[in-house]
Amino acid sequence: SLSGTVSSPCSDFLIIGQAIYNLGPAQSGTFTVRFTATTLGQRVCTLNTGCAQLPCTGTAVASNPSCSVQPNGLSFLDVGIGDREDATFTLTNTGTGTIAGTVTESCVDFSIAGQASYNLGPGQDQTFIVRFAPSQAGYQTCTVQVGPGCSTVSCSATGVVGCQFQTITLDFGYVSRGET
Fold first, then answer.
1. Which residue has the higher pLDDT, 164 or 90?
2. Distance CA 118, CA 114 (A)
3. Rounded mean pLDDT of the chain?
4. What distance in Å separates the CA atoms of residue 123 and residue 139, rounded to the nearest whole number?
5. Burial class for 140, CB neighbours closer than 10 Å (0-12, 13-18, 19+)
């Protein structure tokens, strides 16, 4: 039987999960080592396994957050006053760092519906909903701010007066059954 503990003397290399082992004949154990860069450049560490030393290396590079917004323009055409229409755009992290922020707008008849904040790692994306609910007829524009380093989303919309009717009372008087 072989017993021991896997440990790391370096703060950049951490043992994640179970680090203690007790193995019988022909048994093996698997351990997870996480490299978390605290300074730029190459880092070297030797892990203690109890039966052999395990060299580890990792290189920390500067993160390069970058983002893409698709589409970067939304159109809402002929939306009736009192109605609403939703359109979506997707934010994708195309860089090597994490991007985080909140999608905002400051236009009267436009709003962000649902989740507005994001925290995206490299390659991740998130879809956002822009809602147009006109309070008056006419053409309107709005610029949605996506976050630092990201392009904006331009919105254009037209609010229209929809079908209107006036409720009146129709009195048919007394009608015998089966008659019109």
1. 90
2. 12
3. 89
4. 37
5. buried
